[in-house]
Design a protein that fits this description.
CATH superfamily of the largest domain: NAD(P)-binding Rossmann-like Domain
CATH class of the largest domain: Alpha Beta
Order of helices and strands: EHEHEHEHEEHEHEHEEEHEHH
Number of helices: 10
Largest sheet: 6 strands, mixed
Structural class: alpha/beta
Strand content: 15-25%
Shape: globular
Distance between the termini: 28 Å
CATH architecture of the largest domain: 3-Layer(aba) Sandwich
Number of strands: 12
Strand order of the largest sheet: 2-1-3-5-6-4
Number of domains: 2
CATH topology of the largest domain: Rossmann fold
Radius of gyration: 18 Å
Amino acid sequence: MQTKAIKAGLFGRPLSKSLSPGVFRIFSELTGGLISYELRECAGPGLAAEVEAARAAGWTGFNATIPHKRAVLELLDSAEKAARETGAANTVRFGEKGLEGTNTDALALAGALGEHGLSVKGLAAAVYGAGGAAAAAAWALAGAGAGRIALCARKPEGARTLQAKLSRVFPGTSFSTLPFGEPPEGHTILVNATPLGMYCPGTPPCAPRAGDICVDLAYAPGGTDFLRSAKAAGARAVDGLDLLVWQAALALDFWGGFPGGDIVKFKNDALARLARQLEG
């Protein structure tokens, strides 16, 4: 049973396609608890004021998405390892130490790889993007033993900054930067960490092949074009909806509202309900 009421929400822009409120409604049904969750669109300059308003309103915590994941880190009084090492935070609680944050995006991908039995040890990955989502994906892959990670970004300076940061954290993984295009032969892990397929049309400029591991941090009802092309090619796919529910379950746990037990089963039960709702 739910141990306490949770009041939370999501800060970002745009939020028009976010499924997070629906996910937390399902969590409320599964736990029998009282969970309220709302969307708060705000631009960069208004973030600090929104956070203080949420504190005054008695929120337990909040999530952050584009464009706030890095800015949130600067507001924290304490940050867990995943947030410190990625340089981005997407889950925050109003805790005993003030604002306490973590990165459930990174932890969700690490959990999903393990759940699906996908080993990336020694493999080469191409991560598209250089923002907070790309940092989370690269951190999870390096932590799972990926040998090489190429950051393919439209803004090379952002990719170089992320490369330098993660190279210090994971000296056993070789990080590089590449143009936003098809990666060289041998990159068998392809990750979309951009808004493509969710808030922007299109797919990353790569062609999935049979046996590749394809991860999409974007999500859409019925799957994104990138994930559909990956599955059609015979690649092994990690869907953004799966990652959304994973990170939400981890956020609930971080806020102190997870009822205990098997978090993987809880996530899968919630994901099954979400899929039925989207199909309906």
